[in-house]
Amino acid sequence: MLGAAGPAAAQSSSVEAELRRCRGIADSPARIVCYDAIVLPRAAAASTQGPTAAPVPAATQSSASAASAAPPAASAPATRDFGLPERPAALLPQYIESSIEGEFDGWTAGARLRLANGQVWEIVDGSTASYRLRDPKVRISRGLFGSFFMDIEGVAQSPRVRRAQ
pTM of the prediction? Predict the structure, then answer.
């Protein structure tokens, strides 16, 4: 039992010494490289050792999970499916941009607006508005609890909408 604690204690003190050395580096990029040189080789070794490996430090876990949790870049299929309920929201973009082609006179409750990308969105918040615009740009963004809001260029309101088609 003592034999197992000896190498771990020695490794711990060497890590502390390396951390102190890195802490003394004034140049931020060089300091980050120093910290990475301490953590990354240990993380790689831990992953090859299997379930008996020492846990990866919390700083490495949070940065690794943050990198893997980054949203994927919006692609054409993802934009096409935006607002449809079949796919998990995490796989879809946070907003889409398009335009309303031609004259736009506003909307009434329940109105359906066809975008230049072919999508049809229905006004579901009961609002009405009257505007005289030509080919306004539109951004539809995700809200809370699965809702969507339409921002129309030149319009002060952002009605809540639902993808109809």
Answer: 0.46
- Residue 78, phi-psi category: left (phi > 0), alpha (psi -120 to 50), beta (remainder): alpha
**In 53-92, which positions are buried (b, 16+ CB within 10 angstroms) versus exposed (e)?**
eeeeeeebeeeeeeeeeeeeeeeeebbebbbeeeeeeeeb
Which residue ranges make up each domain of the chain? 2-68, 76-163
The answer to whether residue 5 scores a pLDDT higher than 90 is no
Q: In this structure, what DSSP letter does residue 52 have?
A: G
> Among candidates 159, 158, 163, which has minimal Cα distance to 146?
163
End-to-end Cα distance, the chain: 67
Q: Tell me 96's DSSP state.
A: E
CA distance 42 to 76: 40
**Three-state SS at 141:** strand
Q: Please name the residue that has the structure tokens 């002060």.
A: 156
